[in-house]
């Protein structure tokens, strides 16, 4: 009888709160956006060079967004919003 009552009164505790998940989804969105911006720029013919592969969007913007996204992920995991 005592064990059943203890199971009923036990409340499920999540490791992360609502704020943590919000920041995690923001970080995942930035990482996904960075990979989408990095995609493309190739050529169908291997004998033809396509200079679009070296534009600023693929060289600077996309990796920066990915690194910022990973930074936000680390922040979301380590920050304790439950205080």
Provide a brief overview of the structure.
This protein has 83 residues and is an all-alpha fold.
Rg calc: 22 Å
Mean pLDDT: 87
Into which percent range does the helicity of residues fall? 55-70%
How many strands? 0
Q: Describe the main β-sheet briefly.
A: none
Percent strand: under 5%
Cα end-to-end separation: 35 Å
* Oligomer classification: single chain
One letter per element, helices H and strands E, the order comes to HHH
Query: DSSP helix count?
Result: 3
Give the overall shape, derived from the CA principal axes. Answer: elongated
**Structural class determined from secondary elements:** mainly alpha
Q: Which runs of at least 5 residues are low in confidence (pLDDT < 50)?
A: none
Features:
3 helices, 83 residues, 63% helix, elongated, mainly alpha
Task: Please give a structural write-up.
The protein is an all-alpha fold. The chain has a domain at 32-83. The protein has helices spanning 2-9, 18-38, 56-78. The mean pLDDT is 87.
What is the strand and helix layout of this fold?
Elements (H helix, E strand, L loop, with lengths): L1 H8 L8 H21 L17 H23 L5
